[in-house]
Amino acid sequence: MNLWKYYAITHRDHVVCNPMSTAKLDELMERLRLPSGARVLEIASGKGEFLIRLAERYDIVGIGVDQSPYCVADARARLRSRVPKARLTFVEMDGAAYRPDEPADFHLAACIGAGWIFGGHQGTLRALERLAAPGGWVVAGEPYWRQEPAAEYLAAIGEARTAFGTHHENATAGRDLGLELAYTLVSSPDDWDRYEGRQWYAAEAWAREQPDDPDVAEVLQRVRAEKAAYLQWGRETLGWAIYLFRKAEGEG
Known about the structure:
By secondary structure, this protein is α/β, with parallel strands linked by helices. 43% of the residues lie in helices and 23% in strands. The chain has one domain: Vaccinia Virus protein VP39 (Rossmann fold, 3-Layer(aba) Sandwich). It is built from 9 helices and 7 strands. The chain has a 7-stranded mixed sheet, with helices on both faces. β4, α5 (121-131) and β5 form a beta-alpha-beta unit. α8 packs antiparallel against α9 (216-237). The relative contact order is 0.17.
């Protein structure tokens, strides 16, 4: 079935589409302390919650890029209902292909939870660093291994051991790029449980509401397999964090 349809079904009850509480997201925004007129770019902006909350707090000019037509539609609807006068634009396209008119000019360049777009955490930081202005912020959300993953877990989720690093490796990944780690926000087990549990709940509810949809069987099979893997291995094995880096003042 269509990937973005599956994602829209399983994440329909999510405010933010990653395992981070809204309280921690608000804490991140407080740390940024953006100046008036700050230019902000978010790759894989999802439903637009991060950019919209930034616009509610700061006077920004923001661009959100996401490949999901469902997410972009949600983001535009939220924009109209909450901050219709905000200078935000949501673009439907592959984030890896996005090229701004003025490179290296964003006060904040972010990709929170979709590092696969750039081939992993290091590639994400490299791409965002090129987009950020000197002295600007680079924000990345990325999974990390809390412990060595079981081979059965890797097989169940279709990932290689090298797909993610440890929390320490993620936090120090920006050094060679001239990025200084300023802050981290780490998801708790409760954050993870809510993120995963809402997907299970949403999928089952959708299946009851749309019994004639041709994708019902596939959605339920997939989400139940993901639930089993999370409960048996993932909850103790995989962590998630947002990493806040500052680009050096002299870098351009």
